C-alpha cells in the first residue's frame, strides 16, 4: 500500500498549493475581463448580457432548448408569479448520436429543428410563437442576448462549420430549411447561467452558478464597471468564466500529472480545457483507468495482469468512481465485469485510487469557486460575504465533498449550495423572463419620463 500511495502523491494537492491555484485563477480572471488582455486569456470571462437575477415578479410561458451533453431537450415552461414556481409543462428528449456530434453543423441543427418541430406538434404549439431560451453549454462570444458566436467545441462535440458562427443564425436557418414553423426571439444561455437563474428564482441571494458534470464551468454577477468589453458602468452583468480553459496557457504545469497529459493528448481537443480535464465527468474515469494500468504494470495490482477491457480507452466509466467509493461490494462487482482477477487488497487499492481522483477534482473546484466568491466580496468592499451558489451536474451530486474545502479556501465567505433541479432547461426560460421584465420596466420608465416632460411643458 505504501508503494501505491507513492504513485498517488502527485494527485494530492496541499491547502497551500490550492491557495496558489486560486491566486493564479484570480489573475487570469482579471486578464479575461480586460479590454486589451482578453483575447489572449485562457480564462475567457465572457459577458452574457444577463443583467439581473430574478426578483420574483417574472411570469409567463416559455420554450426552452437545452444542448450540452449527449441529449437535446425541448421544454415548455410556465413561470407562475403567485406561487413563485417554475413548472415544466412538458418536455421531449432527443438523443444526439455520435455521428451527429462529430458530423456537420448543418446535420446537428437540422436534427435539433426536427426535434423541436415534433415537440411543437405534440403540444399543439406551432401556431404560437412563445419566447424562447436556448441553453447552449459551450463557450460563446455573445454580442447581444440573441447573438452568440461559438468560440470552440468542448466535451464530446466537434461539428464542422459551427466554430466562429452565430448559433442563433444556424438554428434559424435550419428551421427555415424545414419551413413548417417559425420562432421569434431567442435568448442564448450558458448552462451555468441557467442554473444560477433557476436557483435565483427560489433564493434571490443566488449570484453564482456552477456545473460539475460532463464538463465544468461557473458564472457569477460581476460589477459592470469591471466588464471593460461592454459599454456602461452601472449595475451588474453575469460573466461566464469558462474556467475549464484555466491552464491552457501552461499555468497549471506544476500540478499536471503524467496521466493528465495522456488524457489531454488522446482527447479530441488536445491543449483545450486543461482544468476541465482534471475535474469533470468526461475525463475522471479515464484518469482512474490510466492509474490502474500503471499500478498493474508496476505489479502493484491484479498480480500484474491487465484485462482487455482495462486496456481499452474509456472503459472505466466515471460513474464507477462513486459506485466504488460507496462500498467494496460494488468495487468487486465492477472489477469482475471488467474481466479482472482481483483479491481484497486489489479492491481496496482501486477504491483508494477512485477516492484520490475524485478528491482532487473536488478540491480544485473548491479552489476555483473560492476565487469567485472572494472576488464578489472584494468587489463590494465587504469584510464578510454570505452568498448562494446554484449547482448542477452529476459529478457534484455524487461527490458533494468540495463543500468541506470551501471553509479553508474562502474563510471570509459563508456559502450556501443550492442544487438545481433541471436548471439548465428551466433557467433558459428564466433568463428570457427576466429579460422581458427588464424591457417592460425600461419601457415604463421611458413612458413616465415622457409624461413628466409633458407636465413640465404644461407648467411652464
Ligand atoms: C463548456 C461550458 C459549460 C461546461 C459545463 C464546458 O465544456 O465550455 O460552456 O458550461 O462545459 O457544461
Automatic annotation (TrEMBL):
<dbReference type="GO" id="GO:0005536">
    <property type="term" value="F:D-glucose binding"/>
</dbReference>
<dbReference type="InterPro" id="IPR019807">
    <property type="entry name" value="Hexokinase_BS"/>
</dbReference>
<dbReference type="InterPro" id="IPR022673">
    <property type="entry name" value="Hexokinase_C"/>
</dbReference>
<dbReference type="InterPro" id="IPR043129">
    <property type="entry name" value="ATPase_NBD"/>
</dbReference>
<dbReference type="Pfam" id="PF03727">
    <property type="entry name" value="Hexokinase_2"/>
</dbReference>
<keyword id="KW-0067">ATP-binding</keyword>
<feature type="domain" description="Hexokinase C-terminal">
    <location>
        <begin position="207"/>
        <end position="434"/>
    </location>
</feature>
<dbReference type="Pfam" id="PF00349">
    <property type="entry name" value="Hexokinase_1"/>
</dbReference>
<dbReference type="InterPro" id="IPR001312">
    <property type="entry name" value="Hexokinase"/>
</dbReference>
<comment type="pathway">
    <text>Carbohydrate metabolism; hexose metabolism.</text>
</comment>
<dbReference type="GO" id="GO:0006006">
    <property type="term" value="P:glucose metabolic process"/>
</dbReference>
<dbReference type="GO" id="GO:0005829">
    <property type="term" value="C:cytosol"/>
</dbReference>
<dbReference type="InterPro" id="IPR022672">
    <property type="entry name" value="Hexokinase_N"/>
</dbReference>
<protein>
    <recommendedName>
        <fullName>Phosphotransferase</fullName>
        <ecNumber>2.7.1.-</ecNumber>
    </recommendedName>
</protein>
<feature type="domain" description="Hexokinase N-terminal">
    <location>
        <begin position="5"/>
        <end position="201"/>
    </location>
</feature>
<keyword id="KW-0418">Kinase</keyword>
<dbReference type="GO" id="GO:0004340">
    <property type="term" value="F:glucokinase activity"/>
</dbReference>
<keyword id="KW-0324">Glycolysis</keyword>
<dbReference type="GO" id="GO:0001678">
    <property type="term" value="P:intracellular glucose homeostasis"/>
</dbReference>
<dbReference type="GO" id="GO:0005524">
    <property type="term" value="F:ATP binding"/>
</dbReference>
<keyword id="KW-0547">Nucleotide-binding</keyword>
<comment type="pathway">
    <text>Carbohydrate degradation; glycolysis; D-glyceraldehyde 3-phosphate and glycerone phosphate from D-glucose: step 1/4.</text>
</comment>
<comment type="similarity">
    <text>Belongs to the hexokinase family.</text>
</comment>
<dbReference type="GO" id="GO:0006096">
    <property type="term" value="P:glycolytic process"/>
</dbReference>
<keyword id="KW-0808">Transferase</keyword>
<dbReference type="GO" id="GO:0005739">
    <property type="term" value="C:mitochondrion"/>
</dbReference>
<dbReference type="GO" id="GO:0008865">
    <property type="term" value="F:fructokinase activity"/>
</dbReference>
Amino acid at each position: 500500500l505504501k508503494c501505491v500511495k507513492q504513485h498517488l502523491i502527485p494527485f494530492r494537492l496541499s491547502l497551500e498549493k490550492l491557495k496558489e491555484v486560486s491566486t493564479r485563477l484570480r489573475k487570469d480572471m482579471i486578464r479575461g475581463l480586460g479590454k486589451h488582455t482578453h483575447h489572449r486569456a485562457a480564462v475567457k470571462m465572457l459577458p452574457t448580457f444577463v443583467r439581473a437575477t430574478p426578483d420574483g415578479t417574472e411570469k409567463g410561458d416559455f420554450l426552452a432548448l437545452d444542448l450540452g451533453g449527449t441529449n437535446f431537450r425541448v421544454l415548455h415552461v410556465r413561470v407562475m408569479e403567485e406561487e413563485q414556481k417554475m413548472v415544466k409543462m412538458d418536455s421531449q428528449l432527443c438523443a444526439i448520436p455520435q455521428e451527429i456530434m462529430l458530423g456537420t453543423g448543418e446535420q446537428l441543427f437540422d436534427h435539433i429543428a426536427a426535434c423541436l418541430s415534433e415537440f411543437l406538434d405534440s403540444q399543439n404549439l406551432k401556431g404560437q410563437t412563445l419566447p424562447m431560451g436556448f441553453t447552449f453549454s459551450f463557450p460563446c462570444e455573445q454580442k447581444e442576448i440573441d447573438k452568440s458566436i461559438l468560440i470552440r467545441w468542448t466535451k464530446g462535440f466537434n461539428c464542422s462549420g459551427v466554430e466562429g458562427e452565430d448559433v442563433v443564425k444556424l438554428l434559424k436557418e435550419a428551421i427555415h430549411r424545414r419551413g413548417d414553423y417559425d420562432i421569434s426571439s431567442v435568448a442564448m444561455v450558458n448552462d451555468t447561467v441557467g442554473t444560477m437563474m433557476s436557483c435565483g428564482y427560489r433564493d434571490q441571494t443566488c449570484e453564482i452558478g456552477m456545473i460539475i458534470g460532463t464538463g465544468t464551468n461557473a458564472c457569477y454577477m460581476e460589477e459592470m464597471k469591471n466588464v471593460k468589453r461592454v459599454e456602461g458602468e452601472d449595475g451588474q452583468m453575469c460573466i461566464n468564466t469558462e474556467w475549464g480553459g484555466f491552464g491552457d496557457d501552461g499555468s497549471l504545469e506544476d500540478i499536471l500529472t503524467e496521466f493528465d497529459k495522456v488524457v489531454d493528448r488522446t482527447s479530441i481537443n488536445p491543449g483545450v480545457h486543461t482544468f476541465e480535464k482534471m475535474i469533470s465527468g468526461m475525463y475522471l474515469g479515464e484518469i482512474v483507468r490510466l492509474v490502474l494500468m500503471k499500478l498493474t504494470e508496476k505489479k502493484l495490482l491484479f498480480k500484474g495482469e491487465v484485462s482487455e477491457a482495462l486496456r481499452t480507452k474509456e472503459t472505466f466509466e466515471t460513474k464507477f468512481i462513486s459506485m466504488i467509493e460507496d462500498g467494496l461490494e460494488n468495487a468487486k462487482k465492477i472489477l469482475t465485469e471488467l474481466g479482472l482477477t482481483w483479491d481484497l487488497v486489489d479492491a481496496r487499492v482501486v477504491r483508494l485510487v477512485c477516492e484520490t481522483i475524485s478528491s482532487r477534482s473536488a478540491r480544485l473546484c473548491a479552489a476555483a469557486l473560492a476565487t469567485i466568491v472572494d472576488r464578489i466580496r472584494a468587489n463590494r468592499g465587504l469584510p464578510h460575504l454570505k452568498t448562494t451558489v446554484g449547482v448542477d451536474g452529476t459529478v457534484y451530486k455524487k461527490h458533494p465533498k468540495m463543500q468541506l474545502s470551501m471553509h479553508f479556501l474562502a474563510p471570509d465567505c459563508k456559502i450556501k449550495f443550492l442544487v438545481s433541479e433541471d436548471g439548465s432547461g428551466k433557467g433558459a426560460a428564466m433568463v428570457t423572463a427576466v429579460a422581458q421584465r427588464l424591457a417592460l420596466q425600461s419601457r415604463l420608465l421611458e413612458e413616465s419620463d415622457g409624461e413628466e416632460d409633458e407636465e413640465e411643458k404644461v407648467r411652464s
